[in-house]
Amino acid sequence: MCGIIILVLTGLPGSCFPRVKPIVGLDKVAHLLMYATFAFFCLWGYRKQFISNGMAYRKKAILLAVVISIAYGGLTEIMQEYLVPSRIGDWVDFAADTVGTLVGVGIFYLFYREKK
Prior knowledge:
The chain is mainly α. The chain has helices spanning about 1-10, 25-45, 45-50, 55-85, 90-110. It has one domain.
């Protein structure tokens, strides 16, 4: 569901958004939060296995969530650049997506790592 919401928001033409004086950095914070949530929920379905299985399983799950989230961020920026009227793909947005991905995976790991 989170991926669909991101796809819809990034696929809307620029004319769908209100014209307001931009707050510097707010767009990047939004990207970070969207992709932190996306990466967190990429791992959510595996939380019981994440706790009970060994480190090899955890590493694979984390790597998969990171790859999926970063690739999705890249694809949405490409989509904005070439398919969405009055929107542009942005490397800084992609960087914010990547940082958000790492934040989301980190938060998941803190909550669901093996309890000692």
